[in-house]
Specification:
This protein is an all-alpha fold. Helices cover about 85% and strands about 0% of the residues. The protein contains two helices and no strands.
């Protein structure tokens, strides 16, 4: 479980970094605002990816029990 969560965290951090670097908007002059945006986006991605992964995994296990 810890390994899955850490992998999801790493993927969300990589996607957030790529998105932040590719963003063409004008950057806020405040460093606090930049860090807030970065960590907020990373936490949103982490929640979305982990929700999708664990619900898919749960449904898959239930379907395998039904088939067996």
């Amino acid at each position: 479980m810890k390994r899955k969560l850490s992998n999801i965290f790493i993927v969300s951090a990589i996607l957030t970094t790529i998105g932040f670097l590719m963003d063409g908007d004008i950057k806020e002059p405040s460093m606090v605002m930049r860090f807030t945006e970065y960590f907020a986006m990373m936490s949103i991605l982490f929640l979305v990816i982990s929700t999708l992964y664990f619900t898919t995994n749960s449904v898959n296990k239930k379907l395998q029990k039904i088939r067996s």
